[in-house]
Amino acid sequence: MANLRHCRPQESVTLLDDVSNSLCHIADAAELVRNVHPDEAYVAHASSAVQEIAGYMSEVNLDASVYQCMKDAEAEASRDSEGLSLEARTVLHHMRVSMEHEGIHLAQAEKQACIEMLDAEQQLAFDIVQRQEQARQRISSGTDGAWIPVSALGNLSLDQWRLKERSGRHGREVHVPRDTFLADRILKVVPCGEARRQMHEAQQSRDSAAEEMMVQLLAVRQQLAKIRGYPSWAHYAQREALFQSPDKVKHFLEATWEQLRPGFLAELRVLADEKEALGQGSILEPWDVPFLLHRCKEKRQEADQISTYLTYGSLMAGVELVLSRLLGLAFVQEDPDPGEVWHPSVQKFALRDAERTIGILYLDPFPRPGKKVQSAQFTLQGSKMLADGQLQVPKTCLVYALPPGSQCLSTSFAVTFMHEIGHAVHSLLSETHFQHLSGTRGTIDFVEFPSHLFEHFVLDPDCLATYASHSTTGARLPQNLRDAHCHRPFGHFEAVQQLTYALVDQAFYSFHPSPEKDLQTHLHSMLGSFEQGLDGPSNASLLELLGLSTATARFDHLVHYGGSYYCYLFNRALSAHVWQQSFRPDPFNRETGERLHSLLRGGSVVQTLDVIRDLCPGDPAFDAHEVPLDAMMA
Ligand SMILES: [Zn+2]
């Protein structure tokens, strides 16, 4: 790094990316190991490696000479616009701005304050998530909850929960803590409306300690946003995103709600009819919703029948087809070298273009004690041009907890499987010169597009029928099940759920905490139109019905996504549109495949809607907030 001062801009970017590449090799592998390795000693060493690298990175991020070299290189490159490729300029700019976000360019006192805020932000985020996780598992001894008669709980297993007991008016009662998995389970499966009402109300009562932590986190993030030159954290979250401003996100969410509303109300009426059929009246209460939804989904026999076509083997046949027919690549299983993988069940695949290996995929499909993630993608090596003129081959790992053998998967499990495959393929097909913005190393609303597009390889019935076969007979998906698979059950409801989460996220990050202002008052004023009656089979507002009216304290997505949660609903709409325009008529068309390949080849260097819209030649242009919604509604 000492040589950096004497470098030309191209050499500077290359050198910085080389260093970052070496560090990522260790940190990325360690991150995977600490999440999946069966040996505790490996996990412990991996955790300390992750911390050591993170510590070193934060030192480098505060190195004034590195920063000065970046600025000089950027200035020199702007004088000589021919000299540096678009990617090199983008990477250089991105690296410099990232350093400024850590406070490198500030005067000493401000820089110190910035460092303290960054530490506080990390600590608060960790504490909040930890607290919620412990509440769910009931490791902590929170006292808020509801006394529920044991007779109402049917055959729900209570053994592992060590609940407090008392004898009450209705016989033996147990105290169920409000934020546990058990509480959620009760809301889903217990027929007794009164027990569910009590559980729901306990969950909705305000948790002032948790709320206080969320407000502290918000205050720190708002200060950081201000230091970084943005009016609010919501604006900061949009700095490289497709919408560019929180106003446009708001526009998108409001327009989408208007479109979703009729279908959503129709689905609520289905739930209300179910309630009436049970002899419990026909007005939906918030504590009825999870129960009736679960019940209606369980009653759909087609869901079970479709599931018999969704095995791990079936889905892998689909992946093979996507890679070979659509993308023209070979997908070959290889024997891992001794010590290369962390468990015998891990499979290794090479992705080949003619004779050239262009990517390596590790698949760790099945559950195992000690595995800390359910479905996730880990990048192990990004694409990069090496000094010898060879491309560094991207390596990525997918981790799941699929039922082993030829057991059947639910549709939602299968969709998640293909979603993660989409992330992996984006990573593996990347051919960037620098690893800094390779594959999925981009802004969340852009990188969630390929994964959402891939979901349609499962969601589209005709496409699914080309590869899915019955778990025992091997038969293809019959027409009646294809017809049933056309409609996503309670699809509007799911979309509205994503929408309300996004609304709360946006409203939350537009609040600037101060002693005179109350978060809940702010949220009520921002979300006012969603708190009015629904004009449907319920007297509750949308937010009440979905259990979100006081939910800021329970909603850990606010911590993780910080103003970007809308990206799921947005990509649901965008991917449905692109699928309908370009993939639906012929999902494995080679020309379409070439266009997709060229999008993915670019990694995350050019993160614009235009490069996505190139998948639909001749399609009229639109801005992110005006994404066509028809395909998602269908
Ligand atoms: Zn994703």
TrEMBL record:
Its cofactor is Zn(2+). Keywords: Hydrolase, Metal-binding, Metalloprotease, Mitochondrion, Protease, Transit peptide, Zinc. It is found in: Mitochondrion. Residues 193-615 form the Peptidase M3A/M3B catalytic domain. CDD domains: M3A_MIP. One of its GO terms (biological process) is peptide metabolic process. One of its GO terms (molecular function) is metalloendopeptidase activity. GO terms for cellular component: mitochondrion. It comes from the Eukaryota. Its main location: mitochondrion. Belongs to the peptidase M3 family. This is MIPEP protein. It comes from Symbiodinium pilosum (Dinoflagellate).
